[in-house]
What we know:
The chain is an alpha+beta fold. It contains 26 helices and 35 strands. Strands 1, 2, 3, 4, 5, 6, 7, 8 and 9 form a nine-stranded mixed β-sheet that branches. The protein has a six-stranded antiparallel β-barrel with strand order 13-16-20-19-18-22. Strands 30-31-32-33-35-34 form a six-stranded mixed β-sheet. Helix 7 runs antiparallel to helix 10, helix 8 packs antiparallel against helix 9 (299-317) and helix 8 crosses helix 12 (347-381). The N and C termini lie far apart (86 Å).
Amino acid sequence: MKWTGLNELREKFLSFYVSKGHTRLPSAPLVPQDEASLLLINSGMAPLKKYFMGLAELPDGNHRATSCQKCIRTPDIENVGHTARHGTYFEMLGNFSFGDYFKEEATTWAWEFCTKVLELPVDRLYVSVFEDDDEAYEIWTKRRGVDPSHMVRMGREDNFWEIGSGPCGPCSEIYFDRGPDKGCGKPDCHVGCECDRFVEFWNLVFTQFNSDGEGHYTPLEHPNIDTGMGLERLACIMQGVDNLFEVDTVQNIMKHICAIAGVEYKKDPQKDISIRVVTDHIRSTTFMIGDGVVPQNEGRGYVLRRLLRRAARHGRLLGINEPFLYKVCETVIKENENAYPDLVQNKDYIIKVIKMEEERFAKTIDGGLAMVNATLDRLQAEGKNVFPGDEAFKLYDTYGFPIDLTREIAAERNVTVDEETFNACMKVQRETAREATRAALGDVAWTEDVLKGKEIHSTFVGYQTMETEATVEAILYSGELTDSVGEGDEATIILSQTPFYAESGGQVGDKGVITCGDTVFEVEDCKKTATGYFAHMGRVKHGVLSTGDTVKAEVNKDRRRAIMRNHSACHLLQSALQSVLGNHVHQAGSYVDDHTCRFDFSHFSAMTAEEIKLVERKVNEMILAAHNVTATEMPIEEARKLGAMALFGEKYGNIVRVVRMEDCSLEFCGGTHVDNTAKLGLFKILKESSVAAGIRRIEATTGWGVLDVLDQDEKLLSDASAAVKAGNHAELPERVTAMAAELKSREKALAAAEQKLASMKVDSLCSGAKEVGGFRVICANVDGTKPEALRTLCDTLRANHPDMIAILGTVCDGKGNVAVSCGADAVKAGVHAGKLVKAITAITGGGGGGRPDSAMGGVGDASKIPDAAAQMDSVILDMLKK
């Protein structure tokens, strides 16, 4: 058994199984591509479900695969750091058979890898099997040569893999004996003991049954093999260390943290907790961001934000009071660059995301920590040990302080959080948001209940046509079903078939008309109910519309075509953004109407003018290339094989619609599109802005919208040319430049004149100075003088007359102001301009203050300025006496 580095172990395992005929698969992204119900990939087999279920085959047709899968698990996040065994990020080695080989081959290769490749001592290896799996016991003992004394039978809880109904089967686990010195010392210490002596490092799952979920099991026609071996755990064994934090690659990350903090591991138990937290969390967050996750307040984005903020707080506990995680992530990347070269490709982006989140949290944590600690101090003084849930919610809702952090800080002082009240507050907030959504949906919110039990068949034909004949299936008026509606009535109409697109996927609903003879119903919006009804909302312009009428439904064609152009532009825009900014760009939302294409996407900094120009150009190149656009319905697995992009978090059925823009874009989409990119005309970006942390927004337009923008710009140029008397647009820059130079020259002349006038005023004011306590005092009104000029006068007096105290008041544009300046000699003697201003403004009902040599204030009642000025002599004398 030879010391082996973690990166070498990964390669040894994968190469071994490739030599056994397995297809080597790259690690799937941490963001699930085929499992909408899964937040993050948490096991080696999670990305391979489609192969196990027979829904897809490997590209090379092989039924054997091996991989090293990145995984994130966060159920025990509070324990990370407090123990040396808990972590949120790990890599899972595995070999898999999709109906190919079974127990014989799985055990043969596992034993060969352990004893021949890794050269683990046979006398330190133990194997467990399911208590009823005699077949596995027989294979291990009689064919693999494992000593029966090193075999253990375990029950269903330990050695049978099953999740509800579906494929399941017995397990067989391989253990390594770390020696008696790592054990509990009990005479009966054995495999399965809670101590640290026997380490389970490889689990072989023999999926051979199908469960109905009620205790009945039938053999599978083609059983599978699913194995999992934690890479870090194996490295612990091969390197002779106690836990994952002492493995070579992880240790290097930890050393970087310790160097930044100026601390040493294993010197202070409390600091060790923080070191482990930061070490684990920076590994997780680096890989998550590299796979496209961005910090947000929900879903996987919240997991990322929680890990980053927990790490940042523990950095502060180590004495690091500035962003530092972004530096440590460079070590994470370096330690994993050979196995995961995409980390190197995305390095700048990953660092930027982490640094920006650290800086954002720094603004939150100081205020939040102060509030949490103030509350804890108060509770401690009152002898209480429960943190109020409403206060925890306020911290979260108003200040962005995570409940997890509040809980953790409170626990350090033996205080629990009233999470029941916190959750109740969260529920109220969600209900409020839900009500707002219901209100926005209008009639659709109650359509379901009203139509319940009614036989209605409604078909959408809007992909093929923009007008069709149909039958009025139902009419809803004032929340109730009715047989007919007349002129002026607002109603919702359900048709047997419709060309109207219902608002969905960011695309607005169609407008148009429903006619029956002379009757005209103007459709102002169309929305789809949860059960698939197309609700046409609008009003009867004239005539009467009744249930059962045969009508003509006609979409506003010009509006629909404009919407189609803008929707197709969204697809081209995503392709261009990924080309210019990188593959981390993912759609985070969109809105498409007849005027605008609005696209939200993941990116952590404002786009530069050059990037915006390049994206716009790339989209227009795709438009002018006249690529064909097709839409096809197909099984979801077939769509994924083609590489069609799906919206993260979106749930799709078994059959999906895929929109292909030849050589440009391939996406899941239910919207309406042009049939050739050339029909977009031109594409113009109107605005790029921030929507939320890590989410940017582009607003753009196409077709006639671009012409409208050109018309508006033309009008602006014409108006500007006329205003500055330019003969034509070409002369405008030259004319504006000349006017700016002329304006600057006049400003200089005006400044010189004002300076001359100020000097004259200074001379006049000085001649009227009086002596107070050995200093010259000017106390005068200069009405009509602006506050800026008043300050300039004071500055001039102060600079030229060190023994001068100037108190100047003004009323300009109906507002009163006072300025005071004190020369250097007066300040040395104890006179304070700021205090003089406070005294004056207090008398006049205003306010102000400033430095000892210069101050200004606002006057409340200007009529009291003379009274205030009259009292300043005594105030100055009092200052000189102190």
